[in-house]
Design a protein that fits this description.
Strand content: 15-25%
Radius of gyration: 15 Å
Strand order of the largest sheet: 2-1-5-4-3
Structural class: alpha+beta
């Protein structure tokens, strides 16, 4: 289980960039090593992620924000949806490009995850991912 006792200490930084680095390192200690925070307040989603920079650049270069199934299926506040390449067999309804996006994210380390949209926090959504197998992530979740 994630120990949140010291989380406020982790999130007391000098600036937002330091807060993100500290939080993503903290979460990685528990297996959540592929964090994605979507800022949905603008015309196009902005992302903050702990995934490798080469993956983030690829995501942007491919225009994946335009086809990412996360935005269609995972934005209901309080409803958490399983995400990641480990679940591709259950996602046959997705188009080929959407399945390729998920597969490529899996190759970059996002094996399994889950969505999180907190009620009362409009405009922000989390895709909390891991290289862990789905069973191990389910125990953590």
């Amino acid at each position: 289980m994630l120990d949140l006792v010291h989380l406020m200490e982790v999130l007391t930084p000098d600036d937002a960039g330091t807060a993100w680095t500290r939080f993503s390192n903290y979460a990685a200690n528990f297996g959540l090593d592929c964090l994605i925070l979507y800022d949905l307040r603008g015309d196009k989603p902005e992302i903050l992620t702990s995934m490798r920079e080469d993956w983030t650049a690829h995501y942007r270069a491919q225009g994946y924000a335009d086809i990412d199934p996360f935005f269609e299926h995972c934005l209901t506040p309080g409803l958490s949806i399983a995400t990641g390449a480990a679940h591709l067999s259950r996602l046959r309804h997705l188009g080929a490009a959407q399945r390729r996006l998920i597969h490529e994210a899996g190759e970059a380390g996002f094996r399994s995850g889950f969505s999180l949209v907190l009620p009362g926090q409009p405009g922000f959504a989390w895709n909390l991912g891991s290289g862990l197998p789905p069973v191990a992530l389910a125990r953590l979740r």
